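Consider the following input, taken from an annotated entry for Glycosyltransferase 61 catalytic domain-containing protein (Adhaeribacter pallidiroseus).
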Amino acid sequence: MSFKTIIYKLFSCINYYYYPTTLTRETKTVLQDRYRVSFTPEEIDFLKKSAATFDYHTDYTDGYWQKALYTVRLAKVTLLGNSGALVKQNKVIAESTFDAGRLGISPAYRSPAVMWNRHKPGLYTSVFHLPWAETSNFHWFYDCLPRVYILLQQVKEPVKLIVNQNLPAFQLETLQFVITDYPHITVVYQPKTAKWEIEHFIFPGFVTNHSSGFLPARIAHFLREKIWQGYQVQPQNAKTRLYISRSKARKRRILNENMLTEELVKLGFIIVHAEDLTYAQQVQLFYNAAIIVAPHGAGLTNILFSKHCRVLELHPADIMKPHYFLAAKALSFDYFYEMGSKADANLDFTVNVEEILKKYKMLLST
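Applying the prediction step yields:
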């Protein structure tokens, strides 16, 4: 036994994986090839401002490429319960951690962990993605659940879908809605402290890119319909106007929010604290919303469930994230934004209420 092999085995005993590997294109069964998304001059202007706040690490001004939709069939891989990452021959498959960027900060990579080994015969798949989607609605609805769509299109034989044992209720609910009518999919649960050696595994590629809520139309339509049906949303004649507050959050709050909401209430807005609502209530509210105003944050994830709305997102001047601009773009929703002050250490900021009201009037006129 070579010295290198001995080191690999020692690292494996403490679940320490030092090397990455990647999937080759030849192994992929492609459902849809990648394609380029074009932007208007106004949209490019927003993306330039956004890229500048990230020192151009995430820059879509020269074009946004929607990833190819694909699956890969793998034999003898290990699924790590602490992350959802896959290991093949003691190397972490980079694509199973989203991409090389997230690989570097994934608990699967160069980070020892206590996980107990279990052998699992049969055919399995998985879409969980930790720690990002552990409790997050954004990462669940954009990083995880869209991958189920690919599986449903390409996998027809019985398969066990592995999820995190501590899956939040809203994630399990919406997963069950999506796989309704697909009895060949069975949900099984994996603890974070387990690693499963799996004989046969189908890996569905991630759909979204960094800092992006852009979903291909076929996936967005499928998820929306399934979740509307699951929560039994009811159309209403009177469309609502929502302001999504972050006053109960720990960061990204608007410091002068009381001044803003006082004016918005006069205009017929409902002030929403998403954390006080069930997910069914959130989906119902967003379904009937015509206009949504909100500071950047997870509450805007739910524009995915709006029948049709216009979005006005509030950003601090020095941190403009494109997640929900791209989500709105994919859904053909009108998107507007307003910049406030620079963010403080908690990412809190103030806004110019008069400028927001002007932008709101502009939104109404489009």
